[in-house]
């Protein structure tokens, strides 16, 4: 049996075998011949034909057990002869028995492609056919499963089925190797076909020459020498078409038998051939009996095939008295080997049955997951990972009996497709929402790009921060757009903030220089001495205030220096012989200049609101004090309590006048 036949058996397929037994001994020589050198044309009556060794001989032809055993023996011999006929057609076929059969079903797509490339480089093209068939079957199965998965993802992302296309480097690599295999195989068979036809013609010519040997009138020794030459030519002629093999071989041996039976051949010469053949066949039998004790079933059966080929093709007949005995002995050894082989296959079948149970359990789990109701993206992602793990377990579970292989694969595909249908239905429901989210994010991108070059730092910075926050709150968009729009949005935001940071860095240096200058000015004010002349001293103080303002803004974290400066200036003003309110107004005017030059207009607004509030408070306090005086109608004005109330009213009115003046000043700035 060939390697591919063995694999088919291992998959659970029992090949139908022809029960007709073409026993090699059928073509052995029968009858005795007498050599009559004086009258070679005289042909003695042919003896009765020997019992055909393909006929089952038994003491009790009704014994059904014996008939069954004989039938099994005949079947395995037919199987061996069919395999030998295949090898005889192409000598390179023998090498297929030496190539390791690997677990292709557990290989990845890339590993299958690499394995095919290795076989093409290291083995004869005709010897790898069964291996390539198995590799091709596994690759197509696994790649189709991958395509189904990619297609489901494509549809889930909103794609149209008609637009789906998937290709991968490993597929291109495999196709290249498989194309090379097909081309080489075709070239080989074209060459082989031509050689087979030529060899068949040569062998038919040899048979014709054999037919003519019994009709030539020449010395028998010359005829015998010619006969041996024809046998040698037959052995050296190459392979012939498989479907012609048995007929040609039977015809050849039929005419060899006629040559032995009907020519008056020298008995000693014939008996010498018989003896030689018997010795060789006994050695074959002994080797077969040794093999029957071996536990290496695959290699044992391959060697048994070779022994049958030697018996049939390389050796001639033996003496009539030995034929049935040695053939039955050889058949018995063959049956023992085949019985062990069948037990071996039964054990493999048990393993395949366990694998089937595993795969059916995996299919059941996939069906359970497919039936579960899932309503969130996270939950679906979890289920997808579970299905992917189960798919890997299925592919790694091993082979199953070939009779259920296709049905098991179909159930697996149906289960995975049911899951994918439910998954796709969920994500199609999200498609509309994702499209709406996409539009929202595109609007944010437009806002970012429209404002990325804005010079209004305060307003734009707040806007940019807001749209970044809004982006995070918007849900998922279609996967095909996700990266693209994120990069676009990020680029616009980064453009603005990079520009802002660059400007701030430059501004920070200027502000730091301003701080250093103000620090030096503040330090010089500590040693400033006033002249005592009110006008000159006021000009001096105002000049210092003007210098301070001209220096510019300081860093935010160093603005405390402004407070120190105002305290120092207040101290200088307090040394002047001036009205308190006049001094206060001078200080207020300086403050207004600072507020008006500030980038933050709210500071001036806040000051305006503060002054109005103070005016309202002072008016309220004056009204309150005046109301209190009504309680002192019968009290003299010299009363200390009354005098205190009048003093407070006066002070508050002066304060009101001051705040009113401040309000007038600040109004002029609007």
TrEMBL record:
The signal peptide stretch is: none
Q: Where is the composition biased (Basic and acidic residues)?
A: 1-26
Please give the residue ranges the record annotates as the region Disordered: 1-74
Acidic residues: bias regions: 42-53, 62-74
What are the record keywords, sorted? Coiled coil
Coiled coil ranges (UniProt) are: 182-213, 578-635
Q: Where is the composition biased (Polar residues)?
A: 27-40
Full protein name = DUF349 domain-containing protein
Q: Which organism is it from?
A: Hyunsoonleella aestuarii
């Amino acid at each position: 049996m060939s390697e591919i036949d063995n694999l088919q058996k291992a998959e659970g397929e029992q090949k139908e075998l022809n029960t007709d037994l073409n026993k090699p001994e059928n073509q052995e020589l029968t009858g005795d011949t007498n050599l009559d050198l004086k009258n070679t044309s005289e042909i003695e009556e042919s003896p009765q034909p020997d019992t055909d060794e393909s006929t089952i001989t038994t003491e009790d032809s009704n014994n059904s057990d014996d008939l069954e055993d004989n039938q099994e023996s005949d079947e395995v011999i037919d199987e061996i002869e069919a395999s030998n006929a295949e090898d005889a057609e192409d000598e390179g076929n023998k090498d297929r028995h030496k190539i390791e059969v690997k677990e292709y079903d557990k290989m990845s797509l890339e590993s299958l492609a690499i394995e095919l490339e290795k076989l093409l480089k290291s083995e004869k093209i005709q010897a790898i056919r069964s291996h390539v068939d198995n590799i091709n079957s596994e690759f197509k199965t696994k790649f189709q499963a991958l395509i189904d998965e990619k297609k489901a993802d494509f549809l889930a992302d909103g794609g149209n089925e008609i637009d789906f296309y998937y290709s991968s480097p490993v597929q291109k690599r495999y196709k290249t190797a498989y194309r090379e295999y097909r081309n080489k195989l075709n070239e080989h068979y074209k060459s082989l076909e031509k050689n087979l036809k030529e060899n068949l013609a040569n062998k038919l010519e040899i048979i014709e020459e054999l037919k003519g040997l019994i009709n030539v009138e020449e010395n028998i020794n010359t005829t015998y020498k010619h006969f041996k030459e024809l046998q040698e030519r037959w052995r050296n002629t190459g392979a012939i078409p498989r479907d012609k093999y048995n007929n040609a071989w039977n015809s050849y041996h039929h005419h060899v038998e006629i040559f032995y039976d009907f020519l008056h051949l020298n008995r000693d010469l014939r008996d010498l051939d018989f003896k030689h053949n018997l010795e060789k066949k006994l050695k074959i039998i002994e080797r077969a009996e040794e093999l029957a004790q071996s536990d290496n079933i695959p290699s044992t059966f391959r060697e048994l095939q070779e022994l049958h080929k030697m018996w049939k093709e390389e050796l001639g007949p033996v003496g009539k008295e030995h034929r049935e005995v040695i053939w039955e002995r050889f058949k018995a050894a063959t049956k023992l080997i085949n019985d062990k082989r069948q037990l071996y296959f039964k054990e493999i079948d048990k393993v395949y049955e366990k694998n089937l149970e595993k795969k059916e359990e995996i299919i059941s789990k996939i069906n359970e997951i497919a039936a579960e109701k899932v309503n969130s993206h996270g939950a679906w992602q979890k289920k997808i990972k579970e299905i992917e793990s189960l798919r890997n377990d299925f592919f790694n579970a091993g082979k199953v009996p070939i009779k259920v292989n296709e049905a098991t694969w179909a159930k697996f595909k149906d289960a995975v497709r049911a899951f994918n249908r439910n998954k796709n239905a969920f994500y199609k429901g999200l498609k509309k929402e994702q499209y709406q989210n996409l539009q929202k994010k595109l609007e944010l991108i437009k806002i970012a790009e429209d404002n990325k070059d804005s010079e209004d730092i305060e307003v734009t910075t707040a806007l940019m921060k807001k749209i970044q926050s809004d982006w995070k709150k918007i849900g998922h968009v279609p996967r095909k757009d996700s990266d693209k729009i994120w990069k676009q949005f990020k680029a616009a935001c980064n453009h603005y903030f990079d520009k802002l940071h660059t400007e701030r860095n430059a501004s920070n240096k200027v502000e730091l220089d301003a701080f250093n200058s103000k620090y030096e000015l503040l330090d010089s004010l500590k040693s400033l001495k006033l002249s005592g002349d009110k006008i000159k001293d006021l000009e001096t103080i105002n000049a210092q205030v003007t210098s301070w303002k001209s220096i510019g803004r300081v860093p935010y974290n160093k603005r405390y220096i402004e407070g120190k400066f105002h305290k120092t200036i207040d101290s200088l003003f307090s040394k002047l012989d001036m009205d308190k309110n006049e001094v206060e107004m001078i200080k207020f005017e300086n403050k207004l200049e600072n507020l008006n030059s500030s980038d933050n207009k709210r500071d001036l607004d806040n000051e305006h609101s503060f002054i109005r509030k103070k005016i309202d408070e002072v008016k309220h306090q004056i009204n309150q004090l005046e109301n209190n005086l009504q309680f002192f109608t019968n009290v003299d004005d010299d009363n200390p309590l009354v005098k205190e109330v009048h003093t407070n009213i006066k002070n508050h009115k002066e304060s009101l006048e001051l705040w009113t003046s401040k309000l007038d000043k600040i109004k002029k700035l609007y």
